[in-house]
Amino acid sequence: MDNRRFSRVSFKGNAHLELGNHSWLTEVLDLSLQGALIRKPVDWPETTPAAMQLRIRLNDFPVELAMSVSVAHTSDSLVGLRCEKIDIDSVSHLRRLLELNLGDSELLSRELSELSEH
Fold this sequence. Notes:
Pfam families: PilZ. Monomer in both c-di-GMP-bound and free forms. This protein has a six-stranded antiparallel beta barrel. It has helices at about 90-100, 105-115; strands at about 10-20, 20-30, 35-40, 50-55, 65-75, 80-85. With about 120 residues, it is of the alpha+beta class. The protein has two helices and six strands; from the N terminus they run E-E-E-E-E-E-H-H. It has a single domain (about 10-115), classed as Thrombin, subunit H (Beta Barrel), CATH 2.40.10.220. The two termini are about 25 Å apart.
């Protein structure tokens, strides 16, 4: 049973995950207000990295989403990232992307309210 508090949308796109001077190219598989699911990069370290920066290029727009993330979980081929901090421009673009894909602006408004309470 899925006990997620935030709706996820399928999203296929490239992203960069940055930690200090190191950057990994990866593919984003889905997004939510609380984070992202990515394909594990080929040279992913054995130990879980600390806070990183995720930069997602929106496919058809000259816009980039940027958020500070931490690793929530990993598997053989996937990494779940938890959004720790996101700037106002990025959250606005993310909200619009989620709104278009969910088709339910009231659900998204409730999730934003819940997110701001935590």
